[in-house]
Amino acid sequence: MSRVGLQPIEIPPGVKVELTTVEGSPQITVQGPRGTLRRTLHPDLQIERENGRLWVKRPSDSRFHKALHGLSRTLIANMVVGVTQGFRRVLEINGVGYRAEQQGKDIRLNLGFSHPVLIQAEEGLVLKVEEPTRIAVEGIDKEVVGNMAAKIRAVKPSEPYKLKGLKYREEQPRRKAGKQSKKGAG
After folding, report:
1. How many CA atoms lie within 13 A of 2 on its CB side?
2. Residue 184 DSSP class
3. Annotation: CATH topology of 3-84
4. What's the pTM value of the predicted model, to 2 decimals?
């Protein structure tokens, strides 16, 4: 059984959930203090509202439906969290002379290239330079926040020898040893 899919989704006060059907597929719209999110789910699934909770129901115990059950429940729960609290990813910059600067809504990265790299904020996201070596990506959609953070990190990922580059704050890159000198040579 999908243990995640069986859990109810609590609807906090101030959050409005609207369930509709679009071309045979359930569509859920979640509106809260931070904004509105909309998602269309697989047509085999059903969403039921009961006593301030949402339940995701699946038609069978097939492997496909079990996987879809847990995924859909998590996507809806992330929508509820997004419109109430929002999501945030923090990236850190390591390296001598590497830094970030705020330019309006966008950020400018100096990462040892011959030119600065300009990262433009996508719709609904906020890019903040908290310190010259720390960047925060904030928004209400967890998927969009994660994708933007991955795009920023892909500009110059942390290399394994001196750990220079961009990394997520919670990431612990594995450091490799450098070349060894030959002993007894000469």
Report:
1. 25
2. S
3. Outer Surface Protein A; domain 3 (3.90.930)
4. 0.86
